[in-house]
Amino acid sequence: MGKLGKKARKFARKNLQSVLRNKRKLKSKFKRKASKTTGGQDVEENQERDTTNLSTERKAMAEEIEDVSLDDVFSEDDSEGLGEDSDSDVYLSEDSCCAHLTECDGESENNIDSSNGGSSLMVHNRDIRAELVKKAKRLNKLKEKDPEFARFLERYDVSIKQAKDDETSSDDEGGLDGMHPMNEDAVRSHVPKCLTSGQVDSLCNMVKKDHNMAALTCLINAYCTACHSDSKAPSASISVLSHNIQSGETFSKILMFMLHQADTIFRKLLGLSCSNCKKETVLELKNTSKWLSLKPHIKSYLRSTLFLLNQVTDSELLTFTICRLRTSIIFLVAFPTLLRKLLKISVHLWATGDESLSSHSFLIIKDISSMFGLNWFDSCFVKTYKAFINHTQYVDQRLFEHIHFLRNSYLELCSLDVQKSSNMAMKCMLHLAKILQKGRQTKKKEVVKKICSWQYINCIELWVAFISANAPEYDLHPLLYMIVQIINGIALLFPGPRYLPLRIRCIQWLNQLAGSTGIFIPVISLVLDVVAYKIAKDGGRKSGKGFELQSTIKLPKHWLKSRNFQVECISSAIELLSEHFAQWSYHISFPELATAPIVHLKKLYEITSIESSRRVIKRFIDQVEMNVDFVQKKREEAPFSPKDQQTVETFLQIERRSGNTPFMQYYRSIMSKAVTRKMISNTKAALV
C-alpha cells in the first residue's frame, strides 16, 4: 500500500476513530501521572489562576498610576503652618517698664488667651464685627440719601480730629520732648496707653542712640501688634485703632523702623559685624548672656515678620519685607521652626509673585540652601520642584517668561550641589519613566492625558536643561540615557499629525542634548515622520485664524487640512534637520549620515505643490550635497585609517573652529529666519 499524502494524513489525525482513541488513552495516562506527583494541583487551574492574577495586578497598577501625581516622587510633610504658635511667644513681657502700654497689651493678650480657652468669646467677637459691618452699610446708605447729613458727619470728624491733635501735641510738649536723656525708669512711667506718632519717634531715638532695652521691648510689642492686626476688620483704620495704635501714620512708622533698623540694632547689641557673619558665630553665642537676653526680642521680631509676609498682598511691601528679612536670615539658625516657615513662604512667593518679588524670594531660598547645610538643600530642592510642577500646569504666551525664569532659577539652585541634584534628578526621571511606561502598557485615557500635559512636558524640559548645562563638567551619562529613552517613548506614544508640536519639542530636546554632550543621538527617523504626514491635495485650504504652536501640545482637527499645516511640517523638518546636520557637518561620517534624508527629501520635493516649500527643500538639498562633497574630498586626502579613532576625532578641527563653511552659514540664516517666522506667527495669533 502506497504512502498517504499530506491531506490524507491530516484528515486521519483529525477524524479516524483509532487515532482519537489513542489520544484519549494518552490523555488519561498524563492525568494519572500528574495526580501522583507532589502537590496534586491541576496545571490548567494554575494557569488560569496566574492569568487572572496578572490581569488584576495590571488593573491595580493602572488604577494606582491614575492617582499618582507628578510631585508625588518625594514624600514630605508640609503640614507646618504659621498659626501654630501661641501669642505668648509673640509678645514680650514688659514687667513694670512701659506700664501704661502694658495695660493695653495685657488686655489684648487676655482676650487672645480667653479666645483660646473658649469659643464663646470668638463667636461674640464675630457677631460684633458682623453688626459693625451692617451699621457701616446703613450709614453709607444714609449718606447717599441725605447729602446734608454726610456733610455734617465730615465737619464732626474734622473737629474731633483737631481736638485729638491738640491733646497729643500738648502731651508731646510736656513729656516726650525731653525723653532722649531719660533712663529706663522714666520710660516705665511715661509711655502712654495708646501710641502716637510722636511717642513712636521718641522710642525710636532712644533705641537708636542709647540702645534702650525697655524702649526696644515696647517697639517690638507694638510691631507685633501691627503685624497681627485683624485682617477681618471692616476697614484698615478700625484694624489699627483696635490694637492701640492711634493712626495709620503711627502704624507705618512702627513697621518701617523695625524693618529698617531691627537687624542693625540686634547685631550691635550682640557685637556682630554687619557682614561676613556665619551660622557658627551665632551658634557660639547661644549660651552667652547677651544672646539669652536678646533671644525673645529676635524671635518675636522674626515671627511677626513672617506673619506679616503671610498676610500682606501688596507686592511692593512684600518685596521690601522679604529684602529686609534676608539681612537677618543668619539669626534663624537658632530657630529651625521659623526657618521652615520662611522657606515655605519664600517658595510660594517665588512661584506666584511678579518678577521683582520672585527674584528676591529666590535669593532667600538660595541663602537657606547654601548657608544651613545639606539637609536644608534637600528641603529647598524638593519644595521648589513641587512648586515648579504645580505652577506650570497651564501655558500661554504671557506665562512663558515667568516659567522660563522659574526654570533658570531652579537650575541655579541645582548648580550649588550638582552631584546631590543629579541623584535627586534620577528619582524624578524614574518617576516620569514609570508614568510613561504605564501609559504605553495600559493606553488608559487618564494616564495618556497626564503624559500629554504641560506639567509633564515642563518637567522633561527642566531636566533636559539641567543635563545640557552641567554635562560638560560632570559625568551625567545615566541621566542622559534615561531622559533620551523617555523622550523617544513620548514620540512613539503620540505619533499622529495632531501631535506635531509635541514631536517638534521632542526632536529639539534631543538636538539640545546631543549638542551639549557631544554624543550622537539619532533624530532623522523622527524628523522624516513629520514630513511623511498626509498632505492635502492642491495645497489645502488657508487657515482663517492664527495659531500659537509654541503654546500648544495638540493641534485642532481643522488645522490638519490647512495649507499652514503643510508649510509648518516642511519648515520645521528643514530647521530640525539643519540643526542636527550642523552638529555633525565636520564629522568624517557625514556623507553616510545624510544619504537617507536626501533620498526622502527628493521624493518630497517631487510631490509638494507649494512653491515656497519646494524652494526651501531644494536649497537644503543643495547645501547638504555641497557639504557631502566637501567632507568626501577631505576624507580622500586624509592620511589615516578609519580604525585610528584618536586621529578620526581630530578630522576637520581647523574648519570646525573657524565655523565659516557654507553649510554653517546656511544654518545660521535658517535659524534667524525661523526666529522671525515664529515672532510673526505669535503676533498674528495675539491679534486674533
From TrEMBL:
The keyword Nucleus applies. GO terms for cellular component: Noc1p-Noc2p complex; Noc2p-Noc3p complex; nucleolus; nucleoplasm. GO terms for biological process: ribosomal large subunit biogenesis. Residues 46-62 have a biased composition (Basic and acidic residues). It is found in: Nucleus. InterPro entries: Noc2 (IPR005343). Residues 63-88 have a biased composition (Acidic residues). Keywords: Nucleus. Residues 27-88 are annotated as: Disordered. Its main location: nucleus. Pfam families: Noc2 (PF03715). The keyword rRNA-binding does not apply. It comes from the Eukaryota. Belongs to the NOC2 family. This is Protein REBELOTE.
